[in-house]
Amino acid sequence: MSLIRSSIQTLQTGDIALVGIPLDENSSFLRGPAKAPELIIDAIESDSANYFTEDLKDLNAHPKIKWCGNASFNQYLDIEGIIDSILNQNALPFSLGGDHSIAYPIMKAMAKKHGPLNIIQFDAHGDLYDELDGNRYSHACPFARIMEDGLATSLTQVGIRTMTLHQKEQADKFGVTVHQMKDLDAPMNLNFEGPLYVTFDLDVLDPAFAPGVSHHEPGGLTTREALHFIQRIEGQIVGCDVVEYNPDRDVNGVTSMVAAKIVKELLAKLL
Ligand code: MN
Ligand code: MN
Question: Which of 48, 189, 203, 267 is 20 to 30 A from 258 via CA?
């Protein structure tokens, strides 16, 4: 059993293109996420599980889902062109990171195709720093760049638990809706009009559930809570990414299976 393989150049209208973006040069603390995409696919294809989503969609050899392998590119901003080529074939990009900096060039391509989008960001961190360690493309900064460039009509963050005064100012300046972990019981609107993009940083999960990330931030979502929120999203999802899996930090591959589960349930929303 397996996912269908495809080249990124030979997609068809309506395909969901799983593509690896093996970039971790904008990570601020540890490298590792560049090794993630193929390991997440290995986990999806592991004989230890089946291919059904929880709403009983069979992903095994599903004709719309294509694993395109790792994309090749020379430098960070060239990621935009990879997503362009997927969108130009009227396929839907589902990127496997890589660190979260990839969200900025991805959203540049998405906004060219769809206009400014709604974004849901699952993350322990706001990633709204103006710069970090002198790098404005750091994985701590992509949503500042996205909002400055007007690529999003709305940004809704879920699972935040590392707020700083600077990032509070940035969130207020950009009109970001922030659902912090400390307020998890408050009502959360995940219904959107117009095109919607979902970006899932695995460190939104508590490190007890997903130790294979660079930044262990206690007090996060359970895997079940994250799946619950994904399953509750209503809107026209036009792209997804799952980022920040760091296999160097993983324990017995548990986080690769968690990443695979998140990918599967996001795919269920797209089919
Ligand atoms: Mn992030
Ligand atoms: Mn994060």
Answer: 189
200 alpha carbon – ligand 2 mean position (Å): 9
Q: Which residues neighbour 155 within 8 Å (Cβ) at sequence distance 6 or greater?
A: 118, 119, 121, 143, 146, 147, 174, 175, 176, 177
d(CA 52, CA 219): 30
* Cα–Cα dist 99/101, whole Å: 6
pLDDT given for residue 44 in this prediction = 98
154 alpha carbon to ligand 1 midpoint, in Å? 17
Q: Which residues contact 123 (CB under 8 A, 6 or more apart)?
A: 100, 157, 158, 159, 160, 199, 201, 203, 204
Q: What is the pLDDT of residues 106-156, one digit of tens each?
A: 999 999 999 999 999 999 999 999 999 999 999 999 999 999 999 999 999
In terms of pTM, does the model score above 0.90?
yes
Taking the centre of ligand 1 as the mean of its atom positions, its distance from the CA of residue 270, in whole angstroms, is 22
Ligand nearest to the CA of 210: 2
Place of tokens 């979260």: 100
In this predicted structure, what is the pLDDT of residue 73? 96
pLDDT at 145 (0 to 100): 98
Closest ligand to residue 99's CA: 1
| Domain 4-270 belongs in CATH node 3.40.800.10 | yes
Q: Which ligand is nearest to the CA of 138?
A: 1
Reading the block at residue 22, the tokens are: 């093996």
Determine the distance separating the centroid of ligand 1 and the alpha carbon of 180, expressed in angstroms. Answer: 14
3-state secondary structure of 258: helix
Q: How far is the CA of 45 from the centre of ligand 1 (A)?
A: 26
Q: How many angstroms separate the alpha carbon of residue 124 from the centre of ligand 1?
A: 7
Predicted local confidence at residue 23, as pLDDT: 96
Q: Where are the domains of the chain?
A: 4-270
